[in-house]
Amino acid sequence: MKRIIIYIPILILFTQSCQNKDNGQLKNNSIVKSDSVKKVEVSSDANTKEQIELVENFMKWYINNSNLLDKFDTIGGGAMDVQGNDEAKNYYVDFSEVEKYITELKKSDFLTAGFLNDEKQRFVEGDKYFKENPENDAPPIGFDYDRFFFTQESLEDVLPDIEKSNYVVTQKNDFISEVRFSLPMTGVKYKYTLKKNRR
Predict the structure, then answer these.
(1) I need a labelling partner for 120 at 20 to 30 A (CA). Which of 8, 92, 110, 152 fits?
(2) What are the backbone dihedrals phi and psi of residue 14, each rounded to the nearest 5 degrees, phi first?
C-alpha cells in the first residue's frame, strides 16, 4: 500500500506586513494523507488531478478548522491577556495549550509525526526567544501570522482562491512530484512536494 506525503518547502513572497524575524526558522514540513492509495496505472492527467486535489483538500481542511485551532491559547501574555488594571505580562508559550493544539492537528490525518514534532519545536524555539527578548506590546514575533498560509488575511477570504488557482504539477519521478501555485489573497507562492511512500 502507498500513501502520499506532501513536503512543504514553501517559496514565500511575504507581504510587507508579514515580514518578521522568524523567516530564518522556516523548515521543510510534512503533510500526509492517511488514506491508502492503491497502486494503479493512471494517466498523467488523472495523476495530476489527484495530486492537486490532495493539496486542495489539505488547505480546505485547515481553513474549515482554523477557528477551532485558534481557540487554543498557545501564546500567553501581551495586551490581550490584561484584565482590569493589571500590567501586561511578557509573551510566553503555554505548553499545555500547545499539546491540545498539536492533538487537534493530528486528528486531521493529513500531518506526519515529523511535521507535528517540528511544530512542537517551533513553540520551544518561540518560548526561548520570548525569554531572551521580553516583550508584551508588539505582536509576538513568529506567531503573528498564519503558520500554514503565511498571511494575516482572513482565511475565509482565501477559500475561493483555492479552486480558482492555477496549479502546475511537475512529475520528478514515479514517486515524487511538485505542485506549485499561488493564492492572490495572500500574495504568497507555494511549492508542495508530494512523495508516495510504502506503509
Answers:
(1) 152
(2) -65, 145
What radius of gyration, in Å, describes the C-alpha atoms of the chain?
Answer: 18
What values do phi and psi take at 171, rounded to 5? -85, 115
Give the 3-state secondary structure of residue 192: strand
Binning pLDDT at 50, 70 and 90, where does residue 124 land?
very high
Least confident of 29-43, 44-58, 64-78: 29-43
The per-residue pLDDT for 199 is 52
Q: pTM here?
A: 0.72
Q: How far apart are the first and last CA of the chain?
A: 6
The secondary structure element, H or E, covering residue 101 is helix 95-107
Query: What does DSSP assign to residue 113?
Result: H
- Exposed, middle or buried by CB within 10 Å (0-12, 13-18, 19+), for 130? buried
DSSP states along 129-189: HHHHS--SSSPPTTSSS-TTT---S-HHHHHHHHHHS--EEEE-SSSEEEEEEEETTTTEE
What does the chain come to in residues? 199
